[in-house]
Every structure is written in C-alpha cells, then in structure tokens.
Amino acid sequence: MVYGCVCDSTWTVGLGSGERQEPEWFGPDCSLRHCPSADDPRTSADETDCGGKGAVGGHGTGAVGNMCHVDCANRGICDYGTGMCSCFDGYYGE
Q: Which three-class secondary structure state does DSSP give residue 77?
C-alpha cells in the first residue's frame, strides 16, 4: 500500500520482496534523483536489506527481500541534481 504521492522510478517501489522503499526520483516536485544504490563494502552489515525495517513515515515494514536504497554505497556523495556519485578516494563507480 502506498501512502501519498510517489515520484516516478525505474525500479519497483514498495515494501514487498524485490522492491525498494524509496523511488528513484524524489522531492516536492520530483526533480531530485537518487544515485545508484549498493551495499557498503566497508561494513559486515547489508545496508540494502530492508526486510523487517520500518518504512519512512512509519507506514509498514519491509518484507523479507525488501531493499533499502543506499546512495553511492555510503562511499561517495550523491549529486541529487544529476543522480551521479562523486566517489571518495579509493572508490570508483557511477
């Protein structure tokens, strides 16, 4: 179930397995874009695993296999205007 308006996205948004909890585009006018998402390679936890985690706003919980969005794998700064990462030293990617 979706509460409120959701911006467009190339991936499926929701709380089910294989879905991400956040849309690709966001902001009051849907002009901001998330960067590529990945698990942080410097931690043992899987930050992309949203199974059992509450959704933003407290409306529902992610099913097993639900995915959190982690901009730039926490190893760079996301330019939300372009949706491109500026990676920290020692890291590379989009």
A: strand
